[in-house]
């Protein structure tokens, strides 16, 4: 009863002391939380600063980009991509049939070929001479200054004059040829072409094309192969007459045109 009487007599003070106690409790919780949060932040900040101020350089780690491999086309291989090859090719790029002609180079070849072919034939788009000079100007295997320009031109002329694209052996489109280097108009030396034999100096001494499907006339320019000793072209479909220019071949020992 005394406690109740005290409470009723001092009710206002009880409210005040109770409110102060609640506020003190809340203030204590806020202070405690603030101290804890500040301590954690300081720790993290110190750690971050230490990482940035570390004087030791980072260790380089190689990158292995996934590269599809031939034996794993559906997935990825973790082998590193190989670097580029720095060894240049010894051969100049081989042009296509549609490649533009280098005009100065073409004119240099014309000046050489004019020694054995007429300019009228060279500039006539329907002539085999025109096709041969355009081919050799784009060939990029031989330069106009080479002593072998004329014989390479004449072999190309033989090819175009006798429908070489339809030859059964060692033409561009022929299915039969023992060696790709032996194909006429290939980028190899003409001394390696089928049926061609050269001497030690590299000049043609024999042309033997037996039953290869030649169809057309022998060009007059064959008479300009000054070192030629054998001309063997049997069992083909050569037309027209034997070129009179062959009479100027002082080294010719054998001429075989059987079954034409």
Report on the architecture of this protein.
- The longest helix is centred in the first third of the chain and has 42 residues, at 11-52.
- This protein has 260 residues and is α/β, with parallel strands linked by helices.
- 19% of the residues are buried.
- The protein has six helices and eight strands; from the N terminus they run ααββααααββββββ.
Brief descriptors of the model:
260 residues, 8 strands, 11% strand, alpha/beta, 6 helices, 35% helix, two-stranded antiparallel ribbon
Q: List the uncertain runs.
A: 40-97
**Straight-line distance between termini:** 150 Å
Strand content: 5-15%
Helix content: 25-40%
In terms of quaternary structure, what is this? single chain
Mean pLDDT value: 78
Radius of gyration: 47 Å
Helix and strand string, N-terminal first?
HHEEHHHHEEEEEE
Describe the largest sheet. Answer: 4 strands, mixed
* Sheet/helix structural class: alpha/beta
Numbering strands along the chain, what is their spatial order in the largest sheet? 3-4-6-8
Gross morphology = rod-shaped
The number of helical runs is 6
How many extended strands?
8
List the helices and strands and how they pair.
Elements: H1 2-9, H2 11-52, E1 67-69, E2 72-77, H3 103-113, H4 119-122, H5 128-139, H6 149-161, E3 196-198, E4 204-208, E5 215-217, E6 230-232, E7 237-239, E8 254-256
Parallel strand pairs: 4-6, 5-7, 6-8
Antiparallel strand pairs: 1-2, 3-4
